[in-house]
């Protein structure tokens, strides 16, 4: 699906709980994995300068400000124009880079991408998407936090954007799209859910109807559409449940000598399960609907998560994700 053309990704070296060491280590991993990747790192001069000097295909772009986690996102973007996040988005806007990644302030990255890169023509509201593991292939769920209050037409656009992302990043030729609801019948749920269902039936190829919360991980769909409030609660529940279950399994496997012996036999299978459930496997969460590729990472992102996020960013660029979304949401 994707070609191997050279892609330039801007990485915010200042963003995240483990910055800059884990961020820069992740860049190194990404460069080793992709010979056609180039990276611009934004951040303090004494950090990005030496790093760029020591690595091929890396450019350091010094910045003097950082958007902190507790700052008001839009205000910070407007007042800190030389922050590592704002400058990174500006480099994409100006065409000097193809994509941007940050594990820093989620709100700051969202605001900068929206205000600096701008929205794709026709997009009412950008949405945060995430890849979730299922009993089958992984699925895309959106919105997971950008828009707490939505209208049916917003959810329809989320569906189009999620479908494009599933095609480009998950390599699904004809994505199945479902609406998250409290019942499978079209008459179930809130007014938003009922009106969205009617709209999707009429306007959305690939729509398979409603699914309930128990079906999110069942592998019955490729794209799960919901409002940002419901999506965020669902995502945090999935992440918390996964963490607790894996912890309980680990405790059980080490609770006795016999269990420890059994764990040694099961270790390969358990490692594969952990890999599937680990959000770091899928990189960061894309902000879909902005005029450029923007990937937002967890604040606790380690080097592996950063490398995967950069990989996904490059894959999205090579798969013409922005152009696909623009074509999908263009007025008829």
Topology, pairings included?
Blueprint: E1 7-12, H1 21-33, E2 37-43, H2 45-53, E3 58-62, H3 73-79, H4 84-93, E4 99-102, H5 106-117, E5 127-132, E6 139-142, H6 152-169, E7 177-180, H7 191-203, E8 207-211, E9 223-225, H8 228-253, H9 257-277, E10 285-288, E11 293-296, H10 303-318, H11 321-329
Parallel strand pairs: 1-2, 1-4, 2-3, 4-11, 6-9, 7-8, 7-9
Antiparallel strand pairs: 5-6, 5-10, 10-11
Helix pairs in contact: 1-10, 3-5, 4-5, 6-7, 6-11, 8-9
Structure, explained:
The protein has helices spanning 21-33, 45-53, 73-79, 84-93, 106-117, 152-169, 191-203, 228-253, 257-277, 303-318, 321-329, and strands at residues 7-12, 37-43, 58-62, 99-102, 127-132, 139-142, 177-180, 207-211, 223-225, 285-288, 293-296. By secondary structure, it is of the alpha/beta class. The protein has 2 domains: 1-123 and 289-332, Isopropylmalate Dehydrogenase; 125-281, Isopropylmalate Dehydrogenase (3-Layer(aba) Sandwich), CATH 3.40.718.10. An 11-stranded mixed β-sheet has the order 3-2-1-4-11-10-5-6-9-7-8, sandwiched between helices. The longest helix is centred in the C-terminal third of the chain and has 26 residues, at 228-253. The mean pLDDT is 91.
Key traits:
globular; alpha/beta; 332 residues; 11 strands; eleven-stranded mixed β-sheet; Isopropylmalate Dehydrogenase; 46% helix; 2 domains
Distance between the termini: 27 Å
- Could you estimate the helical fraction of the residues in percent? 40-55%
Helix and strand composition category: alpha/beta
Strand content: 15-25%
| General shape | globular
Rounded mean pLDDT score: 91
SS elements, strand count:
11
The largest sheet is:
11 strands, mixed
Give the CATH class of the largest domain: Alpha Beta
Number of domains: 2
- Which runs of at least 5 residues are low in confidence (pLDDT < 50)? none
Order of helices and strands: EHEHEHHEHEEHEHEEHHEEHH
Q: Per CATH, which architecture of the largest domain?
A: 3-Layer(aba) Sandwich
Rg calc: 20 Å
């Amino acid at each position: 699906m994707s070609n191997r053309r050279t892609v330039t990704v801007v990485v915010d070296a200042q963003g995240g709980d483990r910055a800059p060491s884990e961020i820069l280590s992740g860049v190194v991993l990404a460069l080793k994995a992709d010979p056609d990747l180039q990276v611009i790192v934004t951040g303090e001069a004494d950090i990005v300068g030496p790093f760029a000097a020591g690595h091929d295909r890396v450019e350091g772009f010094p910045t003097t400000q950082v958007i902190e986690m507790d700052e008001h996102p839009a205000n910070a973007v407007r007042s800190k124009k030389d922050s590592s996040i704002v400058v990174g988005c500006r480099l994409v806007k100006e065409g000097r880079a193809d994509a941007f990644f940050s594990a820093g302030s989620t709100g700051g990255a969202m605001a900068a991408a929206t205000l600096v890169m701008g929205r794709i023509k026709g997009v009412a509201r950008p949405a945060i998407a995430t890849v979730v593991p299922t009993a089958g292939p992984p699925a895309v769920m959106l919105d997971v936090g950008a828009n707490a209050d939505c209208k049916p037409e917003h959810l329809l656009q989320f569906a189009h954007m999620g479908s494009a992302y599933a095609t480009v990043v998950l390599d699904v030729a004809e994505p199945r799209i479902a609406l998250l609801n409290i019942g499978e019948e079209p008459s179930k749920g809130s007014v938003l859910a009922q009106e969205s269902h009617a709209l999707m039936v009429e306007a959305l190829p690939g729509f398979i109807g409603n699914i309930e919360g128990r079906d999110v991980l069942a592998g019955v769909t490729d794209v799960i559409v919901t409002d940002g409030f419901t999506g965020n609660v669902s995502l945090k529940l999935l992440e918390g449940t996964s963490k607790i279950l894996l912890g309980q399994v680990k405790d059980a496997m080490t609770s006795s000598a016999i269990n420890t012996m059994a764990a040694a036999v099961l270790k390969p299978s358990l490692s594969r399960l952990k890999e599937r459930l680990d959000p770091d496997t899928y990189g960061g969460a894309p902000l879909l609907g902005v005029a450029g590729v923007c990937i937002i990472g967890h604040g606790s992102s380690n080097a592996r998560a950063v490398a995967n996020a950069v990989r996904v960013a490059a894959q999205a660029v090579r798969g013409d994700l922005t152009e696909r979304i623009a074509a999908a949401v263009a007025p008829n």
